[in-house]
Amino acid sequence: MSIALAERGSAVPQAPSPVSRGGRGRRSRLVPQWFLLPALVFYSVVVLYPSLAGGWYAFTDWTGGSGANWIGLDNFRELLGDRAAVASLRNTLLIAVTLTVVQSGLGLLLALALNSAIRGRNLLRTLFFAPMMMPPVIVGLLWQYIYTPNGPLDTALSALGAGGLIQSWLGNSQLALWSIIASVIWHHVGMSMVIFLAGLQGIPEELYESAALDGAGALRRFWSVTRPLLGQATTIATALTMTSSLKLFDQVFVMTGGGPGVSTQTLSLIMYREAFVYGEYGYGSAIALVLTMIVAFIVFLQMSITQRGETEA
Asked: What's the CATH fold of domain 74-312?
């Protein structure tokens, strides 16, 4: 009997030692990190290293060859004295402010209209968002054709009896930049609309019903209910619009090439020309570094202001 009990006792499973359990736990925690390694290597090679190298080349006179001499802040001094670069900075800021205000405003209006129970709203949402699927270069070519003399826009104005409004849309230095801005708004307003639509659909309907019972009209409901609860959507929409507009390149390059003169030239375009056309890679890197700092500062400032307003609301 004692032998049987001993045999039964020997069959009782032994608890794993803390050492082996801890080793397996550490290995299981490390497995997901190994899956991240290829992406981290790719990101480091394609994004991180070129960015750091570009920051260093901004302080050199590198022209694309093997030699790059350190020249300190000379590229930035040249940039401050470059009238074309100063005009490009002015154009870039004008584009960014205009697109952020107008595109976000139109996107909000479209979202409010298409969030209501109107007939065919799903089709209209698709139509307004469809231009976002087009590459920027194709959009630039399309609108360049629309703006051509005696093109679709001029023909439409003449048919409506407004032939006196016909202009040289891309050849007039006073109108060319605004013509480009109009094409960018048409291209990207769908993105702002979708972001605001997502925010509107997250607002409980009960809040509107309570406000209506309190006697609030449509404008009052928008100001007291919709506006505060769209704070996060507004932050996202304006930040994305500001970032993309500060880096605008494709439409400008395709539609006007920066002309007439420097009236539509942007920092992205002048950076491209200095680096890849004239071979001044050090100077082009300095422009890219300045543009990066401007984008980071403006987006940080804009998001801080928007989030402060959201918190106060």
From this structure: MetI-like fold (1.10.3720)
